[in-house]
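Good morning,

Attaching, inline, the backbone tokens for the sequence recovery test we're adding to the shared suite. The designed sequence is right after.
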């Protein structure tokens, strides 16, 4: 049975916090160079709050601030946090980046957002989790952060 996460936005005051985890997946197809494919598990108190947009936002947030630890040494591998100092280190920038939806240009749903059995789970009476397989263009995301002077260019680091 395949389920699709709805793409409607929750009320502004009901938008869930950044409550998620990232997990690497066994590659069923190779990721394009510069991209990482992984599953984002998002959590909330109401199922309807876990939209595709929230899951995608959480995936980008995770790549930026937590990184992705690969379970194997294949092409997926590890992605260290791009901003290890956290959201607050550039709060105004990231408020705009996430609030305006700019993050969406760096992420795609795999399988058109279709989910596998077990990707929507009611943990208990007051908690849900939803898994979504995504593909993030980490190279383009890093270049954008370099251009906006949020992170230092790798080329500059090696010139020291």
């Amino acid at each position: 049975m395949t389920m699709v996460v709805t793409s409607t936005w929750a009320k502004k005051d009901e938008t869930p916090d950044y409550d998620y985890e990232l997990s690497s997946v066994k590659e069923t197809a190779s990721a394009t160079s510069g991209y990482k494919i992984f599953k984002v598990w998002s959590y909330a108190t109401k199922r309807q709050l876990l939209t595709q947009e929230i899951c995608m936002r959480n995936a980008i947030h995770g790549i930026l601030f937590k990184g992705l630890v690969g379970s194997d040494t294949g092409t997926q591998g590890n992605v260290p946090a791009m901003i290890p100092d956290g959201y607050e280190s550039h709060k105004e920038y990231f408020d705009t980046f996430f609030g305006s939806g700019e993050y969406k240009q760096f992420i795609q749903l795999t399988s058109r957002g279709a989910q596998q059995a077990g990707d929507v789970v009611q943990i208990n009476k007051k908690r849900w989790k939803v898994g979504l397989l995504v593909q993030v263009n980490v190279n383009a995301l890093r270049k954008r952060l370099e251009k906006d002077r949020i992170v230092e260019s790798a080329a500059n680091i090696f010139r020291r």
